[in-house]
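re the bet — no i am not wrong, look at it urself. input seq straight from the record:
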Amino acid sequence: MHAWLQVGGHGDAGEIDPYVVAMREAEEETGLHDLSPWPDPTQPTLFQVAIVPVPASEREPAHEHADFRYGLATHTPHAATPESPAVRLIWLEVEPALSIVAEDNLRICLQRIAEMLS
């Protein structure tokens, strides 16, 4: 299955702050080093905690995964580069993202952000 998703990942050993994990993963996955919290650049805003099912694979059994979703901003969206050449990556504003995202729980998060923008 292919889908447009937000950047993200898992915490490393010893990481206990979900925002620190989110920021590290966003930088690793986009190559952007000017990321800052949005809408307030002085503190992160948690827009959503989503519990998503993860199907079983060769590496792990089926389980649930908690996504902590924050808003991030950059002054250099054109400089985003994927962590892997096999991955397509684009930085989108909210309205274009809403038009291509199929995951219901991610649409809810984007709609919350859109409400803050209006």
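see?? Residues 18-117 form one domain. told u. also The chain has three helices and three strands. so pay up
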